[in-house]
C-alpha cells in the first residue's frame, strides 16, 4: 500500500482577479475552495492513476471537515488523525502574478501526535510512505526523520518532498526518489546553477548521498531524471498554463505510483512528467483524462 503523509493540510482558497493592488479593496472575479496540502495532492493523483493509496495526516475543525468530506466524496481512502484545532486555509491569488499565502498550521497536542505516529507500527516491507509538505509549529524538525527510521526498520520504502537540511539528513536512509526543483537544488548546495550540466552535477551528488532516484523539476522547462546508470531529460509539452499549484506533487505521485507498480524508472519518469504538465494545464489538479491526453506528448531523451 502507498500512504501519503500531510501533517499540515489546508483548504486552498483560490482567488482570481485581473489585477491585485496592494493597500486597496480588490474584488474577486472568481473563487474556489479545494482540499490542499502536498501529500493530499499526491494521493489525489495516485487515485486518478487508479493506484490504491491512503492519505494520512491531521485534520481538525470546520476546515478539516471540509477537506475530509471533499476527499471522501471522490472515493479516496483516508485515515486522518482528528485534532481539536482548525486545519489552515492557504490563499492562492491568481492576478498579474501567482501569489500564495500559506498558513502556519494548527497546534497539535501530545496525544494527537502519539495517535498519529502509532500508525507507523503496522507498516510492512510492501509499503511506501510519501512525506510531503511543511511541518506544523508543534512538530520538531526531526519529526519526519524519526518516522523514516521506523519505516526503514520495517523494510518499507519512503519518499520525501522537502528542502534544505531536512532533505539532506534523510539521504543516508535511501529515499526511493527525491525531487527538488532547480532552484531548490541550488539552495541545497549554496550554489548558482547556470546550465543543465551544472544541474546534473549537483543532482548526481544527491544520488551519491543515498537517494535511489533523483528527479529535478524545472517547471515549463521540463525535468531531469538521474539514475545510477544514466541521465534523462524531457522538455515540457506546450500548453496553456492554468494553475501550476501542485505540479510538483503531481510529478511525485506519477513517478512513485508508477514505479511502485512497474519498478521501471523510465516509465515512472514519463508518468511523473505527464502528471506535472497535466496539472499545470488544469484548473484543479489533473484528472485521468488530462493525464492520458498529455502522456503521448512526453518525449524523453538520454542526456550525455
Ligand atoms: N508551465 C508548465 N508547462 C508544462 N509543464 C509544466 C509547467 N509547470 C510544471 N510543469 C511540469 O510539472 C513538473 C513539476 O513542476 P515544477 O517544476 O513547477 O515543480 P515544483 O516547483 O515542485 O512545483 P509546485 O511547488 O508548484 O508544485 C515539471 O517538471 C514539468 O514537467
Ligand atoms: O505550506 P506547504 O505545506 O509547504 O505547502 C502547502 C501547499 O502550498 O502545497 C500544495 C501545492 O504543492 C498546496 O495544495 C498547498 O496549499
From TrEMBL:
Enzymatic class: transferase
Pathway as given in its UniProt record: Carbohydrate metabolism; D-tagatose 6-phosphate degradation; D-glyceraldehyde 3-phosphate and glycerone phosphate from D-tagatose 6-phosphate: step 1/2
Family, similarity comment: Belongs to the carbohydrate kinase PfkB family. LacC subfamily.
Pfam families membership: PfkB
UniProt KW keywords: ATP-binding, Kinase, Lactose metabolism, Nucleotide-binding, Transferase
Function summary: Catalyzes the ATP-dependent phosphorylation of fructose-l-phosphate to fructose-l,6-bisphosphate.
Protein name: Tagatose-6-phosphate kinase
GO molecular function terms listed in the Swiss-Prot or TrEMBL record: 1-phosphofructokinase activity; ATP binding; tagatose-6-phosphate kinase activity
Superkingdom, natural source: Bacteria
Taxonomic classification: Bacteria, Bacillati, Bacillota, Bacilli, Lactobacillales
Every Carbohydrate kinase PfkB domain range: 8-283
GO biological process per UniProt: carbohydrate catabolic process; lactose metabolic process; small molecule metabolic process
The protein's Enzyme Commission number: 2.7.1.144
Record Gene3D superfamilies: 3.40.1190.20
Catalyses which reaction(s): D-tagatofuranose 6-phosphate + ATP = D-tagatofuranose 1,6-bisphosphate + ADP + H(+); beta-D-fructose 1-phosphate + ATP = beta-D-fructose 1,6-bisphosphate + ADP + H(+)
GO cellular component, one term: cytosol
Entries under InterPro entries matching the protein: 1-PFruKinase, Carboh/pur_kinase_PfkB_CS, PfkB_dom, Ribokinase-like, Tagatose/fructose_Pkinase
Amino acid at each position: 500500500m502507498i500512504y501519503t503523509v500531510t501533517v499540515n493540510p489546508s483548504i486552498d482558497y483560490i482567488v482570481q482577479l485581473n489585477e491585485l493592488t496592494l493597500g486597496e479593496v480588490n474584488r474577486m472575479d472568481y473563487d474556489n475552495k479545494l482540499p490542499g496540502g502536498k501529500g493530499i495532492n499526491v494521493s489525489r493523483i495516485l487515485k486518478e492513476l487508479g493506484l490504491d493509496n491512503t492519505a494520512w495526516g491531521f485534520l481538525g475543525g470546520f476546515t478539516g471537515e471540509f477537506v475530509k468530506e471533499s476527499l471522501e466524496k471522490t472515493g479516496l481512502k483516508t485515515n486522518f488523525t482528528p485534532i481539536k484545532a482548525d486545519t489552515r486555509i492557504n490563499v492562492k491569488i491568481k492576478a498579474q502574478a501567482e501569489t500564495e499565502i500559506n498558513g502556519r498550521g494548527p497546534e497539535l497536542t501530545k496525544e494527537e501526535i502519539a495517535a498519529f505516529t502509532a500508525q507507523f507500527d503496522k507498516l510492512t516491507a510492501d509499503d511506501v510512505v510519501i512525506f510531503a509538505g511543511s511541518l506544523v509549529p508543534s512538530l520538531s524538525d526531526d519529526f519526519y526523520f524519526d518516522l523514516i527510521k521506523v519505516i526503514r526498520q520495517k523494510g518499507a520504502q519512503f519518499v520525501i518532498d522537502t528542502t534544505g537540511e531536512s532533505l539532506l539528513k534523510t539521504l543516508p536512509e535511501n529515499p526511493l526518489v527525491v525531487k527538488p526543483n532547480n532552484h531548490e537544488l541550488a539552495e541545497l548546495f549554496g550554489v548558482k546553477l547556470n546550465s543543465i550540466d551544472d544541474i546534473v552535477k549537483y543532482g548526481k551528488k544527491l544520488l551519491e548521498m543515498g537517494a535511489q532516484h533523483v528527479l529535478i523539476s524545472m517547471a515549463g522547462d521540463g525535468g531531469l531524471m538521474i539514475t545510477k546508470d544514466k541521465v534523462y531529460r524531457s522538455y515540457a509539452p506546450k500548453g496553456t498554463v492554468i494553475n501550476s499549484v501542485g505540479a510538483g506533487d503531481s510529478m511525485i505521485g506519477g513517478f512513485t505510483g508508477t514505479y511502485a507498480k512497474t519498478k521501471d524508472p523510465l516509465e515512472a519518469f514519463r508518468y511523473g512528467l505527464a502528471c506535472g504538465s497535466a496539472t499545470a494545464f488544469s484548473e484543479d489538479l489533473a484528472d485521468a483524462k488530462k493525464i492520458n491526453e498529455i502522456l503521448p506528448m512526453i518525449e524523453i531523451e538520454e542526456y550525455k
